[in-house]
From TrEMBL:
Belongs to the VPS53 family. Residues 666-714 form the Vps53 C-terminal domain. It is found in: Endosome membrane; Golgi apparatus, trans-Golgi network membrane. This is Vacuolar protein sorting-associated protein 53 homolog.
Length: 716
C-alpha cells in the first residue's frame, strides 16, 4: 500500500508455476532459459544489497531518537517559562487597569445619580406647580387648560410611583386624586345643570365650557365619561319614550315608520347643535342610534306580547321590512364600533356556498326559479359584507314569526290543492316527442315559492324560524311527490280488476294487462322527468338552507328523506314502463311455448312471435326514449330493467317448448339470435341517430341471450 508495484513478484497471491508459464509460454521460448535465470539472479543480488544497506542504516536510529526527545523536552520547559512570565505581566497589567478605572467608575456613578436627582427635582417642581395650578383652574372651571395640564400631571406622577414611601410625594399624589375626583363631580354637575333630567334642554345649545369638560373627561376615570354619555343619551331620548308609550296609537306596528322618522330628525338635530361639543372618538351619534334601537326593541317586544292576537302576517312583514331597512341605513351611516361591548351579537358567518343558487337576493325577486343545472357553471358572486346592526331591533320579531310560518303552511297547502285541481282540469300533458319529456309546470311554481319564502325568512331570522320553515318545506315536498306525481301515475287493469302500483310490481305471470296508451306513456315519462328535477333541486335547496341558517343549526337541515321519496317515484315510473312493455310481449312468448316444435320440418325466417315482440318494442321504446331525452341515465335504467325482466322470462318459456325436434331447435336458435340482435339495438331502435349501447346494458344482454343459445345448442 505504501509502495505500489506492478511486479508479479510483489503480489500477495504470487504463484510460481503461473509465473514460469508466463516467462516460457511455449517450448521454443525455453531456448532463452539461461538469459532469464541470469536476470533473476541479478535481481536477487540487488535486493540483497538493498536489504544490507537498510539494516546498516537503522543501527544508530535509537540513539538519534533519544537525543531528539531530550532536545524537545528542553524546548518545552523554556516555552512554559516564557508563558508564565507573560501571565504574570498580564495580571500586573489588569491590576493597573482596575486602579485606573476605579476613579472613572466613581465619577460615572456620581454623574448618573446627579442627573437623576436633577430630573427628579424638576419633575417634583413640575408636579408641585402643576397640582397648585390644577386646583386653581378647577375652581375657575378653566377646563380647556385643565385638560392639557391634567394629562401632564398624571404622566409626571407616574415617575414617582417608586417614591410613594416619602410623605411629601404621597401627599402630592393624594392631592392629584382629590383634584380628579373634584373635577369629575364638577363636570357631572355642569352637565346636569345644562341638560337636566327633568324639564327641557338648556336654551342656546352647548357651551365651550362643556366641550372642554369633555376633553377633561377623556383624562379622568372612564366611569365619568360613561356617566356623561349615559345621562345625555337618556335625556335626548326621553321625548321618544313619552311619544311612543305603549298606550299611544303611534306605538303599534302599522306606524313603525314614525319611530324611525323621529330618530332620523333627532340625529340631524344633534349634529347641528351638539356635533362639536363631544369629541369625535366618543361616536355620540352612533351611541344615540344604538340606544334608540335597544329601547325600540324592548318597547316593541313588550307591546307585541300584550297585543299578540292582533298581529297579522302582512302587518308583521311590513314592520320587519321597515326595521331591516332602518338597520341597513345604520350600517351605511355608522361603523358599529360602539357594539363591541357585546350588547349585540354579530351575525354568524355563513358556510361557503357550493350550490347553484347564485342570483342576487338583495334586489327584487323575479318569478323565475333560478335553480337550473346550468347554474353550476356560473361564477359565484362575492358575499355582501355583514351588517353589524342586523337584528339590533328586528330580533324582537323572532318570537312572533310563528305567524309567518303558519301563513306559509296554509299558503303551501292551498298551492298543493290548486296543483291537484289544475292537473285534473287540464289532464295529462300532450305528447310532444320533439322536445322530450316535459317537466310539470307546477314543479317550477313550487320551487319558485320555496325560494321566495326562504329568502324572505332568512332576512327575518337565521335561527329557529328557518328550521320551522324547513319542516314545512319537507311536508309539502312529500305531499307533492305523492299527490301530484305518484297520485297521477296511470293505473293498469287486468281481468281481475284495477291494480295499484304495488300490485302491478307483484303481478303474476300470465295476467292480461292492458297496454298503456301513447298519452299514458308520455305522462309516465313526464312524471319521471319531474321527479328527477325535484330530486336535483331539493338537493340544491338543502344546500341553500344550510347556507342561510346559523352555523349551530346546520346539522338540523336534512332533506334526505324527501330526496328518497322522489327516488321512489322515479323507480316506480321506470318499473311501470318496464312492466307495460314486458306485459305486451307476454302473449308472443306464450304463443312460442304453445307451438308444435316437434313438427317443424325446415328452418325459415324468424317466427311470428319474434315479429310480434319486435313490433311492441318498436312501438314503445322510441316514445320512451324521446320523452326521456333530458334524462338519459333513467332511459338506460329502463333498458337494463327490461332486459333483466324479459330475458329470464324468455328462457323460462324455452323450457316449456317440449317436445322439440332437431329442426325446431335450429329454428328457435335463429329466433333467439334475432331477439338478441334486437335487444342489443334496443337503446337506439327506431332512431335516426345511432348510438352505441351502454357497456353495462350490452353485458347483460349478451350474457342472458348467450345462455339461451347454449341451452338450445345442448338440446340439439
Amino acid at each position: 500500500q505504501v509502495f505500489p508495484s506492478q511486479d508479479p513478484l510483489d503480489r500477495a497471491d504470487f504463484n510460481a508455476v503461473e509465473y514460469i508459464n508466463t516467462l516460457f509460454p511455449t517450448e521454443q521460448s525455453l531456448a532463452n532459459i539461461d538469459e532469464v535465470v541470469n536476470k533473476i539472479r541479478q535481481k536477487i543480488r540487488r535486493l540483497d544489497d538493498n536489504i544490507r544497506t537498510v539494516v546498516r542504516g537503522q543501527t544508530n536510529v535509537g540513539q538519534d531518537g533519544r537525543q531528539a526527545l531530550e532536545e524537545a523536552q528542553k524546548a518545552i520547559q523554556q516555552l512554559f517559562g516564557k508563558i508564565k512570565d507573560i501571565k504574570d505581566k498580564a495580571e500586573k497589567s489588569e491590576q493597573m487597569v482596575k486602579e485606573i478605572t476605579r476613579d472613572i467608575k466613581q465619577l460615572d456613578h456620581a454623574k448618573r445619580h446627579l442627573t437623576t436627582s436633577i430630573t427628579t427635582l424638576n419633575h417634583l417642581h413640575m408636579l408641585a406647580g402643576g397640582v397648585d395650578s390644577l386646583e386653581a383652574m378647577t375652581r375657575r372651571r378653566q377646563y380647556g387648560e385643565v385638560a392639557n395640564l391634567l394629562q401632564g400631571v398624571v404622566n409626571v406622577l407616574e415617575h414617582f410611583n417608586k417614591y410613594m414611601g416619602i410623605p411629601q410625594i404621597r401627599q402630592l399624589s393624594e392631592r392629584v386624586k382629590a383634584a380628579q375626583n373634584e373635577l369629575g363631580q364638577q363636570i357631572l354637575a355642569d352637565f346636569e345643570e345644562a341638560f337636566p333630567s327633568q324639564g327641557t334642554k338648556r336654551p342656546g345649545g352647548p357651551s365651550n365650557v362643556l366641550r372642554d369638560a369633555c376633553l377633561v373627561a377623556n383624562v379622568l376615570d372612564p366611569r365619568i365619561k360613561q356617566e356623561i354619555i349615559k345621562k345625555f343619551i337618556k335625556q335626548h331620548l326621553s321625548e321618544y319614550l313619552v311619544l311612543f308609550q305603549e298606550n299611544q296609537d303611534v306605538a303599534w306596528l302599522d306606524k313603525i315608520d314614525r319611530r324611525y322618522a323621529w330618530v332620523k330628525r333627532q340625529l340631524v338635530d344633534y349634529e347641528e347643535k351638539y356635533g362639536r361639543m363631544f369629541p369625535p372618538e366618543w361616536c355620540m351619534t352612533e351611541r344615540i342610534a344604538v340606544e334608540f334601537c335597544h329601547s325600540t326593541r324592548a318597547e316593541l317586544a313588550k307591546i307585541m306580547r300584550t297585543r299578540a292576537k292582533e298581529i297579522e302576517v302582512k302587518l308583521l312583514l311590513f314592520a320587519i321590512q321597515r326595521t331591516t331597512n332602518f338597520e341597513g341605513l345604520l350600517a351605511k351611516r355608522f361603523s358599529g364600533c360602539t357594539l363591541t361591548d357585546g350588547t349585540v351579537k354579530k351575525p354568524e358567518v355563513p358556510l361557503p356556498s357550493t350550490n347553484p343558487f347564485l342570483e342576487d337576493e338583495t334586489g327584487t325577486e323575479t318569478d323565475e326559479m333560478v335553480i337550473e343545472k346550468t347554474d353550476t357553471d356560473k361564477p359565484k358572486k362575492p358575499k355582501v359584507p355583514d351588517n353589524p346592526f342586523h337584528g339590533i331591533v328586528s330580533k324582537c320579531f323572532e318570537p312572533h314569526l310563528y305567524v309567518y310560518i303558519e301563513s306559509q303552511d296554509k299558503n303551501l297547502s292551498e298551492l298543493i290543492d290548486r296543483f291537484v285541481a289544475d292537473f285534473k282540469a287540464q289532464g295529462p300533458p300532450k305528447p310532444n316527442v320533439d322536445e322530450g319529456g316535459a317537466v310539470l309546470p307546477s314543479c317550477a311554481d313550487l320551487f319558485v315559492y320555496y325560494k321566495k319564502c326562504m329568502v324572505q325568512c332568512s332576512q327575518l331570522s337565521t335561527g329557529e324560524p328557518m328550521i320551522a320553515l324547513t319542516t314545512i318545506f319537507q311536508k309539502y315536498l312529500r305531499e307533492y311527490a305523492w299527490k301530484i306525481l305518484s297520485g297521477n301515475l296511470p293505473k293498469t287493469t287486468s281481468s281481475s280488476g284495477g291494480l295499484t302500483i304495488t300490485s302491478l310490481l307483484k303481478e303474476k305471470e300470465g295476467s292480461e294487462v292492458a297496454k298503456f296508451t301513447l298519452e299514458e306513456l308520455c305522462l309516465i315519462c313526464s312524471i319521471l322527468s319531474t321527479a328527477e328535477y325535484c330530486l336535483a333541486t331539493t338537493q340544491q335547496l338543502e344546500e341553500k338552507l344550510k347556507e342561510k341558517v346559523d352555523a349551530s343549526l346546520v346539522e338540523r337541515i336534512n332533506l334526505t328523506g324527501e330526496m328518497d321519496t322522489f327516488s321512489i317515484v322515479i323507480s316506480n315510473s321506470i318499473q311501470l314502463l318496464v312492466q307495460d312493455l314486458d306485459a305486451a310481449c307476454d302473449p308472443a312468448l306464450t304463443a312460442m311455448s304453445k307451438m308444435q316444435w316437434q313438427n317443424v320440418e325446415h328452418v325459415g325466417d324468424q317466427s311470428p312471435y319474434v315479429t310480434s315482440v319486435i313490433l311492441h318494442i318498436k312501438q314503445n321504446v322510441p316514445i320512451i326514449r324521446d320523452n326521456l331525452a333530458s334524462t338519459r341515465k333513467y332511459f338506460t335504467q329502463f333498458c337494463i330493467k327490461f332486459a333483466n325482466s324479459f330475458i329470464p322470462k324468455f328462457i323460462n318459456h324455452l323450457f316449456k317448448c317440449k317436445p322439440i325436434s332437431m329442426v325446431g331447435a335450429e329454428q328457435l336458435l335463429l329466433d333467439t339470435h334475432s331477439l338478441k340482435m334486437v335487444l342489443l339495438d334496443l337503446p337506439s331502435i327506431g332512431s335516426q341517430v345511432v348510438r352505441k349501447a351502454p357497456a353495462s346494458y350490452t353485458k347483460i344482454v349478451v350474457k342472458g341471450m348467450t345462455r339461451a343459445e347454449m341451452i338450445l345448442k345442448v338440446t340439439q
